[in-house]
């Protein structure tokens, strides 16, 4: 059943996607340009009376399938090579993924949420990408749509539905990958979904990256909004 966003029922959640050391300059192994710069805007949103505030974070094993180091030459070049992976639960299904430098490895500093973010405001932290065999951009499911407990520490959809959430505001890194995929899956779960543009940075901030991502999200019914817009003002009025 689609979540209602009527005047009577408005229970917004803030999803802060993958604001981790390895995704931020100056030393992140997969740093997104300007990634650390959005922390202040995210903190301003975290100070608002959202019903639920959730962080997602990559928590990959050392041999994760998306790492270039997990594959043999010559098809093992980060940012260049693409490999076919198979659904761990159904080997007849496959998906092509790009390879990345090793990043956000479990129990390393690179997997930590950056100290610029006020983590005390989070109600929950969902670790994702824990299954070495599958890629998981979205906080909701892996690329095959699986919500396996091997892939994530908690069922994000379940957390949101149990709290009666109607509307999701999405921010974080990276806009053209994990933010986009998380927003699209949130929409599939029946929520009204917004992406706050000032609180997002992308691997590719140009038309072929963030530009394509915004069009894909808007086609799915997701709204790209401003932190100064009426949607955020509505949250402020919940005080």
Describe this protein's structure.
It is a single chain. Helices cover 21% and strands 22% of the residues. The protein is of the alpha/beta class and 239 residues long. The strands form 2 sheets. Strands 5-2-1-6-7-8 form a 6-stranded parallel β-sheet, with helices on both faces. Strands 3-4 form a two-stranded antiparallel ribbon. The longest helix has 14 residues, at 175-188. It starts with 11 loop residues before the first strand and ends with a helix.
Q: Topology, please?
A:
Blueprint: E1 12-17, H1 39-46, E2 52-58, E3 82-87, E4 90-98, E5 124-128, H2 156-162, E6 167-173, H3 175-188, E7 192-201, H4 207-219, E8 223-225, H5 230-236
Parallel strand pairs: 1-2, 1-6, 2-5, 6-7, 7-8
Antiparallel strand pairs: 3-4
Helix pairs in contact: 3-4
Features:
5 helices, disordered N terminus, alpha/beta, 6-stranded parallel beta sheet, single chain, 239 residues, globular, two-stranded antiparallel ribbon
How much of the sequence lies in strands comes to: 15-25%
Query: What is the radius of gyration computed over CA atoms, rounded to a whole number of angstroms?
Result: 17 Å
Give the tally of β-strands.
Answer: 8
Helix content: 10-25%
Number of alpha- plus pi-helical segments: 5
**Could you report the average pLDDT, rounded to the nearest whole number?**
94
- Low-pLDDT parts are 1-7
Largest sheet: 6 strands, parallel
Secondary-structure-based class equals alpha/beta
Distance between the termini: 28 Å
What is the overall silhouette? globular
Order of SSEs, N→C? EHEEEEHEHEHEH
Strand order of the largest sheet: 5-2-1-6-7-8
């Amino acid at each position: 059943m689609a979540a209602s966003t009527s005047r009577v029922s408005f229970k917004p959640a803030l999803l802060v996607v993958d604001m981790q050391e390895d995704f931020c300059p100056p030393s992140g192994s997969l740093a997104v340009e300007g990634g650390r710069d959005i922390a202040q805007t995210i903190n301003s949103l975290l100070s608002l009376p959202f019903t639920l505030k959730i962080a997602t974070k990559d928590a990959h094993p050392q041999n994760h399938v998306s790492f270039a180091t997990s594959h043999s030459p010559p098809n093992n070049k980060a940012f260049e090579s693409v490999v076919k992976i198979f659904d761990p639960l159904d080997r007849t299904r496959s998906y092509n993924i790009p390879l990345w430098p090793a990043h956000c490895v479990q129990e390393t500093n690179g997997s930590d949420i950056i100290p610029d973010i006020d983590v005390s405001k989070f109600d929950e932290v969902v670790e994702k990408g824990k299954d070495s065999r599958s890629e998981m951009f979205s906080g909701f499911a892996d690329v095959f749509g699986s919500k396996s407990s091997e892939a994530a520490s908690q069922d994000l959809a379940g957390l949101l539905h149990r709290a009666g959430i109607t509307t999701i505001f999405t921010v974080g890194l990276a806009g053209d990958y994990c933010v986009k995929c998380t927003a699209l899956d949130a929409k599939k779960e029946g929520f009204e979904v917004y992406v706050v543009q000032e609180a997002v940075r992308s691997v590719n901030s140009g038309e072929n990256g963030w530009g394509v991502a915004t069009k894909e999200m808007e086609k799915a019914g997701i709204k790209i909004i401003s932190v100064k817009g009426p949607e955020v003002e509505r949250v402020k009025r919940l005080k």
